[in-house]
Amino acid sequence: METKIFLNLPVKDLNRSIAFFTQLGFSFNSKFTNEKGTCLVIGENINAVLLVEEFYQTFTHKEICNTDTTSEVLISISLETRDKVDEMIAKVIKAGGSEYRTTKDYGWMYQRTFLDTDGHHWEIFFMDESQIPEMS
């Protein structure tokens, strides 16, 4: 069996989160979807499980962070081109998310950042590994 990643994120309104990520072009695994949560498919072996806060709380004794004031995780996803990065940001804004930081262009990596409708921090980027400067 291949290793898979299931990143779990609390959400306030599951239907709103599903609508948001659907507008970004993501799909969901129906095997892991009910009224308490859904499995957002990011890649072949990478998923984000979006769980309503009350259900998420059953997995931890810790308080769910307030994403308005606290950073819990930075979720980074690579895309095929710079244009795809820009297209994703346009979809994010149209779907109700917000661009969080200014665009970073390092030459070899192009990065933009957004917050989803629950305030989770996502970084999307294009990287040309052949152009990474050598470390000195």
TrEMBL record:
Signal sequence, start to end: none
Domain (Glyoxalase/Bleomycin resistance-like N-terminal) ranges: 5-43
Superkingdom in the source lineage: Bacteria
Protein name (database record): Glyoxalase/bleomycin resistance/extradiol dioxygenase family protein
Record-linked InterPro entries: Glyas_Bleomycin-R_OHBP_Dase (IPR029068), Glyoxy/Ble-like_N (IPR053863)
Keywords: Dioxygenase, Oxidoreductase
MF terms (GO), sorted A to Z: dioxygenase activity
Taxonomic classification: Bacteria, Pseudomonadati, Bacteroidota, Flavobacteriia, Flavobacteriales
